[in-house]
Structure formats: structure tokens, C-alpha cells
Amino acid sequence: MQSAILPPEFQKMFSRMFDDAPQNDWKDVEKVIREDFGKSPEEVFGVSFTGDPTKGVMERKARASASVAQVHWARLADGREVAVKVQKREIAQQIQWDLWAFNERLFLETDFENEADNSEHMARLVAGESRLRNRVYIPKVYRELSSKRVMTAEWIEGVRLWDKDAITRSWRGGWHQGSPGCHGTPMDPPQSDSTSTKVSRNPNATQLKPERDHWRGWNGRGGLGLSLKEVMTTMIDLFSAQMFLWGILHCDPHPGNIFVRRKPSGQPELVLIDHGLYIHMDTDFRHQYARFWKSLLTFDNAAIRDIVKQWGVTNPDIFASVTLMRPYQGGDLSTQQHFEGLSKKDRAQRHYEAQQAARKGIRQILGDESKWPKELIFIGRNLRIVQANNQFLGSPVNRIKITGTWASRALVESPDLPLNEKIQNYARHILFRLVLFTSDIYFYFTKIRQFLRLGGGMEDSLEAQMQSMAKDMGVDLQQNVFEG
After folding, report:
1. Residue 383 and residue 292: Cα distance in Å, rounded?
2. Taking the C-alpha atoms of 347, 348, 349 and 355 in order, what is their torsion angle to the nearest 10 degrees?
3. CA nearest 269: which of 295, 237, 244, 222?
4. 370 to each of 310, 313, 367, how far by Cα in Å?
5. Helix %, strand %, coil % for the chain, to 5?
6. Model's pTM, two decimal places?
């Protein structure tokens, strides 16, 4: 579900769930570990809280806390550094009364064995795709240290997606060196005497992990020296491949779940974490959705109408606008003309009629609920968060073009399609690439305008159009819904 259509108070509540949730006390964390493993944290992870040099160490204070779980750093006795994700004890009870429409998904999201399966599956898919294997990384999961409510994975030193300065500022970490721990780069600089690069064994310390910010330089003002365009292109490539090529989609790609690292080659690498919430698209629906996206960008209204009719949608224009996150200009324009007519009425009458039109429009989108694919709700969530990520980074890429290109490409490359259909799709793909040239013209126009400080980026322009359209429908879209 798009939380953007909820009242502002609820939108704020959902945005806080990403990263700023209260932490459980250590005693609650310890109870979960004991209940799942039948052992203490010291026994499960081989750590000591009393400074024993023969054991590993673990932080009692979480490094991150979200609505479902919190993450603790640990160094095992064999030297491996891990992220221990522990589910909050109250979650099992909360799910019983949580949003009923998403009950099944929430149960899966809180099953960390399911998350481990998703993580390993995604790692295999990325490794098998030459266009992504050197640009995306999925952390290793340690099954022997995991359960239904505890998941232990490789610790990642990276920069969060929301830290634009740290991503783009000049690199000061050394020649042919990458982010700590990235592709052979040591976690800590060799022969360093700095206490900030050594693991503390003080049993009273709340933070034991070294800071590892030497790559920022002596004044701490350095960064990864990476291009936001390359970072964002990789992100859209990854989620488009999931959506159109593989049919398994990560539904929570907010900035807290994406790390950026610098490889020793100087190229960016995206690290995707939190694999609890995925949807699986069957082959027919995946091909259908790819054709739908391709049709949106070529204004093939007959194809759009035929496809969405199978989903129970009776107003293709509104649904197309919601998918693209911009007003769709290729339909019969009846929706747009209706709202233009409202502008001639007084404010009270206009608001009343807009509300009535909104209710009618929603009923049309959900015309026949028995045909509505539930996957579309979670696909919409992914698209909206990725759009917000691109907007937050200044719209460095043409998101719609990249997504549409993957949709068209998937209809050529999919092994599930017969050869004759692939050949037809290949010819259409070449024509499709020519059509997308017009999208590039608009994108570069907005980049020039942005450079001259005459306006925002492409995503800002598209969102302003959508907010105007939504306001006409009586819906208040907030700008920062998924930016936290």
C-alpha cells in the first residue's frame, strides 16, 4: 500500500518505523536468544562480556533499531564481524491485530529463516547476472547462528544512501583501496596504533566496534568520491531486474536498507540488506506487467486497457498515472478534462465534487476486486520508494526510462517465452529505444533548468504534477513520505 494516501499523522508514524524506533532492553534481547537457541548469547556466539581475550565480543546496545527488530554488532572468536538481528519480543503479539490485509506478509517478514532464504536466493541471482554481479552485493548469512527470530549476517561497513556528502566528497582512503572490508580491503588500516581502529574489550563500554573513518582523511571531510548517477542507476537496474527478469521483488528499498561502498577500482557498489519483505511474481503476471510498462511509455492505450481490464481496473488513465507517478498524457484525457472543469467552480463546490470523483476513481481502479493482483500493492510501494530515493539524490537519472528499458528487455531475454515471440519482441525493443529518446529530451531539459537554478530535478517536476492532480482528487500527498 502507498502510505502517501494515508492522512499526514499516519504518514509520520510509518516513516518513523524505518530507523528511529525505540530499542528493546538487553534483557529482552537475551530472552529471545535463549528461547530460540536454548543457550545464552555468550554460548551461541562465543563472546564474553567480562573481557576474556580468548572469546569474541558483542555490543549490548543496538547499532540500529526498526519496528520489527534491532541489530547488534559482534566480533566472533574466529575474527568474523557480524550483524546480529534480533526480533523484538512484542512483535508476535502485535501482528495479531496489525493491518489485516497484510497479515500474511507481516508473518513472513518476521520469520528470519524466510529472510535468510530470500537473501541467499537474491545473492545467487545477482551473481548470475553479468550486468549486476560487480555492482551489487548481498551480505552472507550465517545459518548456524540464525533462527526464526535471530539472523546473523556479515557486518557491512558502508555509507547510508541518505548521506549524499559522504558518497560524493573526495576519496582520501588511499590508492587502490576501497571501503573497509570491501573486496579485499582490510577492515582496519594496517599497522595502525589508533585506538579508534581497535576493538574495545572494556566490559563497561557501550560501543566496542572501531569507528573506521580513516578513509575520510585527517579532517574527517572526505567521502567515497562516487557519482550519484552511477549509484542511482545501479539501484534502478537491480530492482528492475527483480521486477521484470526474475519475478522476486524486494519491497522495502528505503535508504536505511541500502549501503554504498567504494570498490578498490574506484567504482560504486550497492549493498542491499533486510530481505524479509519480498513478493514472488508468477511468469504470466511478470510478462504482463513488463508489457504494461512498455505500453505506458509508447502510449499503446489499447494494450494498457486490455491488460488492466484483466486486473479488474476500469480507469486506465488513473492507474497509469499512479504507476508512472506522473499524470499519464496518453489516454483519453477524460479524467484530466473532468478536473479542469472543476476549476471554474467555487472552492467548496470544487472540493466536494473532487472528493466524490476521488471515491469514484478509487472504485474504478479497484473495479473488480476479485481480479486485483495483490502483488501490485507491493510493486507500487517499491516504485514509490525508489522514486523518492532518486528525488532525494537530486534526480541524477531518468528513472522512468531505465525502468521501461528493463521491461522491454525482459520480454526479449526471458527464457520462459517462445522463440518466435522473443524475435518479435526484439524488433519492438529496437523501436522502443528510439521512442524513449523523447523521454531523454525532457530529462536533460530538467537537468539544464536544475543546473541554472531555475527549478528542481525531473522527479521534483513529476511529483509537483502528481500533487496537483492528487489535490484535485482530494488527496494530500506528502513530499517526504519515504525519505526517512
Report:
1. 14
2. 100
3. 237
4. 10, 11, 9
5. 50, 10, 40
6. 0.81
SS (H, E, C) 110-174: CCHHHHHHHHHHHHHHHHCCCCCCCCEECCCECHHHCCCCEEEEECCCCEECCCHHHHHCCECCC
CA distance 449 to 457: 8
Give the DSSP per-residue string, 5-36.
Answer: GS-HHHHHHHHHTTTBPPPPPHHHHHHHHHHH
Specify the DSSP class assigned to residue 54: T
H helical segments located in 366-457: 375-392, 399-413, 419-435, 437-451
Residues 6+ apart with CB under 8 A from 392: 161, 162, 164, 255, 483
Spell out the per-residue pLDDT of the chain, length 484, in tens.
344 434 444 444 444 445 567 899 999 999 999 999 999 999 999 999 999 999 999 999 999 998 889 999 999 999 999 999 999 987 766 555 554 445 555 566 678 999 999 999 999 999 999 999 999 999 999 999 999 999 999 999 999 999 999 999 999 999 999 999 999 999 987 655 554 556 767 766 778 999 999 999 999 999 999 999 999 999 999 999 999 999 999 999 999 999 999 999 999 999 999 999 999 999 999 999 999 998 888 888 899 999 999 999 888 887 887 777 666 666 555 545 544 554 555 555 544 554 555 555 556 566 677 888 989 989 999 999 999 999 999 989 989 889 999 999 999 888 777 777 777 776 677 767 767 776 667 666 777 777 777 777 656 655 555 454 444 434 444 444 334 3
In sequence order, what are the residues at sequence separation of 6 or more whose Cβ sits closer than 8 angstroms to the Cβ of residue 475?
5, 358
How is the chain split into domains, by residue range?
Answer: 11-155, 160-169+224-484, 171-216
Helices and strands counted in the chain (H then E): 18, 11
